[in-house]
Write a structure and sequence with these properties.
It contains 13 helices and eight strands. Helix content is about 50%, strand content about 10%. Helix 11 packs across helix 12. It has one domain: Protein tyrosine phosphatase superfamily (Protein-Tyrosine Phosphatase, Chain A, Alpha-Beta Complex). It is an alpha/beta fold. Strands 1-4-7-5-6 form a five-stranded mixed sheet, with helices on one face. A three-stranded antiparallel sheet has the order 2-3-8.
Amino acid sequence: MIANFRELGGIPVEGGRVIKKGLFYRSAMLDRATDDELRELGRLGIKVAFDFRELDEARGERPYEIMGVEHRNIPASYENDTLLKSQKSVKLSLLFKKITWRDVKETYERFPIDNKAYKALMASLVKDETPIILHCTAGKDRAGIGITLVLLLLGASYDEIVKEYMRSTEAQAFTESVIGEKIPKIFHRYAFRHFHAFFTVYQELLDTTLNKIIETYGDYDTYFEKEYGITPTIRAELIERYTEKAN
């Protein structure tokens, strides 16, 4: 099973253009995919899989070897002790350490600033290493913000970015199933209520990331130049490379 899977091709960007198809894919973790599903992914020509999970979340090279892609496991670290520990392993002891809305918002504030995972992603785009796939565990937070940055870079509107981000609501059932495997069934109802802020998709969280970028840098051009060395000239070249005129 490959949850929360889709591509960015066809999403409108500024200037009457759309993102080219077959370049940018996203998903939840690939560990549960069957060999046949992974071989089907491999036929998409994907070159690099960006895995934004912590190193001890990853479960080996099987998916990437079957797909025939380069696996880059570069954590998009949460840097929030409560949230990070819960993401790594939902244990009974953690059921009594509730994840708060503030924990999640702090995570989304930290995502876009000095993040080595997204620096590697942007460097890959400059080098033209596409097609690529981005994933984490559920594919909604760490991968979701990675996709948001790609869309920002290529000139997608706020409404289009929100629309794409909110499609990850389908990941909630998948996340619940992952958590459910790690704790006794008797605790499921309590855990799902307790961790609700962790695995639900909210537009407000996306806004938290975008607002942090503007608060820190004033505009997106400055953000991409200061964080990633992508000048307005380079950004224009990337837009030309990865988008095309809409039909």
